[in-house]
Amino acid sequence: MAVRGPPGIRFLQWLGLTPCWDRQKVYQLWTLFLTFLCYTSYHLSRKPISIVKNELHKNCNTTQNNTNTANCSSWKPFDGSDYESLFGDLDTAFLFAYAGGMFFSGHIAERSNLRYFLVLGMLSSGLMTALFGLGYYWNIHTVAFFVIVQAVAGVVQATGWPAVVTCVGSWFGKGRRGFIMGLWNSHTSVGNILGSLIAAAFVSEAWGLSFVVPGIIIASVGILAFFFLITEPKEVGIVMEDKGRKDSYTVQADGPTQHIPLCERCFNEESETETTEVADSEPLLGEEIKPLSGGPSNPKAISFLGALKIPGVIEFSMCLFFAKLVSYTFLYWLPKYIKDEEDYSPTVSGDMSTLFDVGGIVGGFLAGTISDFTGGRATCCVVMLVLGAPMLYVTQVVFQTKPSTSTAIGMLAALGFLVNGPYALITTAVSADLGTHKSLKGNAKALSTVTAIIDGTGSIGAAVGPLLAGIILNKAGSEQRAAQWDNVFYMLMASDVLACLFLLRVFVKEIKGWCTGRCFEQETSNVT
């Protein structure tokens, strides 16, 4: 067999270490694992800033810090009364650069070697993350240095998502995409958790290591991806063929071509009517639009406007704008909120904030699994968003009463479940569904652009949320902090409601589709 794939895979083939059983499944699992590792490292390297904020500016009015005032010195220039505004500048520099970079990264990814593109982004992200931490060792106290590093980091971090989603989307069909990508998308929360724990381990002693260590980790994973990431099946001689909801592949070998079906369901007795019914119930498919030129044999990169014409792209993009606004406000400000409300140390606040991500792992997985079973991506999002708004209010009220540790753990996990569930579903299964819309006629090159549009729009919301939180909190003195945190939560509740409203059209369409299908089944049974 011809030697194919990235350098590491080619070396293993040269040694004769090729999969001894189903090659396609082995490579699927390996790609799923390695892309999971890649994006875990991306989020791992983003998280330290939220943990280190409590060390860059120490609240010397707390009981714990009063016991040792000699160690209660903040890092210039974050030692002034405008420190929250400066923290907002850091978050804004990163997130707006990330959002802007996301819209361009999808187009670049489609037109370049995906593995090179991803690896370059990971190495650059590692460099920028470590560079922020080196400011501690170089004794840098200039705001411009940290803002510029954050802005450049935002641009290079935008390389990750379109690349890994395209890799996974090229290996998996729609049949169990919600389940697979819901489980796979836990990399976001796993990365946040590991990033929090790593940063918290060093923050009190040498906060520079809270950035340097994650920078080394993402660069190391990038090197691993360079040698072993298989971005698409044809790199290892496998050609995926999409036939409705069934996945199949062809192995290209030196001998006769072998066609192997993969679907586990039995379709031997499937009638033409049943096939049409399944196609009609395919989630996220709206009215027909004009197919793109080019096809699987000669795919052409989709234009920005062409991607926007795909039914559902605009609605889910706007929904993600507000859903990600809520999620990223917690990503950047939750440790600070916990410290202000509970008077915990920076290390304990960082550890407590990981519970939000633990709930997010479960929420993303269940949202994907349930949406696979029901076919209602929008419905799952709407239900979780509807429950999320009152949960935000309950969390706000409970934390004002200084709850017990067990109560705080339960509240944070439940909040993460409801907030991150829709966010995870839209950025994974929904993006992949829309990026492989039937009007594209198998044009896999569209997936990167669609993913970039949806997540890019969401990333603008991710930039706006922490910025608004910083502005709101900056208006308050220490005695008014509780009232300003209330205003932050009101902003998050309003955003949650708006996210739900943008999905109403798609939600109603899914409900009507279920009702129509159920009426058809009842009429058929009555005739029989």
UniProtKB/TrEMBL annotation:
Q: How does it sit in the membrane?
A: Multi-pass membrane protein
As one GO molecular function, the record gives:
glucose 6-phosphate:phosphate antiporter activity
Query: In what residue span(s) does the Major facilitator superfamily (MFS) profile domain sit?
Result: 31-511
Which GO CC terms are listed, alphabetically?
Answer: endoplasmic reticulum membrane
Subcellular location as annotated: Membrane
Key words, A-Z? Membrane, Sugar transport, Transmembrane, Transmembrane helix, Transport
Known InterPro entries for this protein?
MFS, MFS_dom, MFS_trans_sf, Sugar_P_transporter
Has the keyword Membrane been applied to this entry?
A: yes
Which GO biological-process labels does this protein carry? phosphate ion transmembrane transport
Keyword rRNA-binding belongs to the record = no
* UniProt record similarity statement: Belongs to the major facilitator superfamily. Organophosphate:Pi antiporter (OPA) (TC 2.A.1.4) family.
| Name of the protein described by the UniProt record | Sugar phosphate exchanger 3
Q: Which organism is it from?
A: Branchiostoma belcheri (Amphioxus)
Species lineage, top-down?
Eukaryota, Metazoa, Chordata, Cephalochordata, Leptocardii
Q: Which gene encodes it?
A: LOC109467425
